[in-house]
Every structure is written in C-alpha cells, then in structure tokens.
Amino acid sequence: MRSPATSPVSIGERIDAIAAAGYIGMGLIADDIAAVRDSIGLGTLRDMIADAGLTHVEIELIERWWVPRGDAGNTYAVRDLLLDAAEVLEPGFIKIGSRTGPAFADLGDLVAPLCDLADQARQRGTRLAIETMPFSGLATVPMGAELVSLTGHPGVGLLVDAWHVFRAGTSLDELQASLTAEMVYGVELDDAAATVVGTLFEDTVDHRLLCGEGTFDLPGLVAVLRDKGFDGPWGVEILSTSFRALPVHEALARAAETTLAIL
Predict the structure, then answer these.
(1) Residue 62: which residues within 8 A CB-CB, separation 6 or more?
(2) Superfamily of domain 11-99+107-262
(3) Any alpha helices (H) in the chain, and if so which ranges?
(4) In this protein, which residues make up the domain named Xylose isomerase-like TIM barrel (predicted)?
C-alpha cells in the first residue's frame, strides 16, 4: 500500500536474497519496474537476474484491461509499462486481474479485449496469467477457467494462488473439475488463519501466514495440481505485517523452507 508501491529494499539486495534462499525466479510489480527502469535500467536488471542464476521472472498487475485507452478507469499506463518491460525481462507471463467489486454475471464481453491484450503480449514474447480474487469481478478459479476456455487463446492461462482459492470457498473437487493441464501457468502458495481478519483485502495483504502455519489444505491443493500435470513454477507469496518486518534474507529463507516442506 505504499504510494508508489515500491519496495524499501534495494533491487540488488532482493536479488541476492532470492538467490541465497534457493529460489530460481522472482516477481516484480509495476511501480518497482518503473523505478528500476528510471534508475539502473531494465537491461541492467535483466543482467543482474541472470548473473544470480535466476531463470524465471513474473511481472504484474494489469487490471481493467477491457477499458479503452482514454476512457475513465483505463490502465494503459501500467499496460504499456509491462508490455515494454516484457521485451527486456522476458517473463514467463504477465499477471492480470480484473477489478474490485462483485463477480461478473457475464464473461462474454471480456473475451475480445482479452484476446487483444494476449496478442500484444505474444508480440512481446510472453503470455497472460489471470489471477482470480474473491473480492473481484473474476472471483474464483472456476470463473477464471471459464474465461480462459471462452477466450481460447494459446497465450491466456491462470495463476492459481492458494489464498484466493480457499478464501473464495472453492473446494478441491471444484478446482479439479474446472482445470485442464495446459491452463495453469503458475501457482502461488501461502496460508492463513481459519477466520478472515478484517476485510478480505486487509486479510490478503496483511495477514497471510507461512505455508503450514495456517488452516489451508495445501497438500491437497498441491496434489490436485500435480494430478493435472502441473510441474512448476511453484511460487510463494507471503503478504503480512509481521513478514514485512523481518530482514529480507531471513524472510525469504523462512518462506522457502516452509513452502518446500509442503511440496
């Protein structure tokens, strides 16, 4: 919730900590990408990532991608930034969301703009991964899977985040029934308490727990995804007040250790 939403930890220190903890990749949000572009440059960032031995990059997040350029609420500033960054950083995918609010009643109007964005991403050498969120228009993974199917574009898939699966009330049986092997581009693992703390948004940004420290059936989720043939990238995304207070090297090492125990 910083404005701009840039990390207080330097990009060099983050890359060092990521590599030291044993990860093979990293993710970056738009404001951080803009800050790097305007300081050391994206080419230098690409080289730093490669020099650290990291081979997977994810960038995010494009919302309201169906709003035309020039219309109120459009997000073309972020869209243009991430598409340009994709040419340099060569991410496995660009993560996209939808908008905060009730779930869409009809997904049909989203198909054409999603295909257009996916075509632009493909021209930059990457793909789109839809991340569903229970407080958004695309509220559940089954909804996201339906949109992927309706779109029928080879460059559109899903980013499955455990928090968004379980806080949306999606069962593992529903997850199993809705997914196909080729749909899932990436997974994010995390945990949480049985009861939502504050609003859903407050819970997701301030109260996530390390894997195995909460109530989510993470082994069950992993089993469903492996049964579908998914073999990575497995990511870990811990957003919490207490996690952010830790030194970055300690935080990333603890996240890696607890997530690998689940995997």
Answers:
(1) 75, 78, 79, 82, 94, 95, 96, 97, 117
(2) Divalent-metal-dependent TIM barrel enzymes (3.20.20.150)
(3) 11-20, 30-37, 42-51, 76-89, 111-123, 141-151, 162-167, 172-178, 200-206, 218-227, 241-244, 248-262
(4) 15-247
Within 10 angstroms of residue 260's Cβ, the number of other Cβ atoms is: 12
Rounded alpha-carbon distances, angstroms, from residue 241 to 2, 22, 38, 87: 13, 24, 28, 34
Residues near 194 by Cβ (< 8 Å), separated by ≥ 6? 214, 215
In 3D space, the residue among 151, 157, 108, 113 whose CA is nearest the CA of residue 131 turns out to be 157
Full-model pTM = 0.96
Please write the tens of the pLDDT for every residue from 9-50. 999 999 999 999 999 999 999 999 999 999 999 999 999 999
What does the DSSP 8-state code read for residue 12? Answer: H
Average pLDDT over residues 116-139: 98
Residue 109: DSSP 8-state: G
Name the residue type at position 188. E
Closest CA to 147 of 195, 185, 116, 108: 108
The distance from CA 89 to its chain's CA centroid, rounded to whole angstroms, is: 16
Rounded Cα distance, 183 and 17, in Å: 31
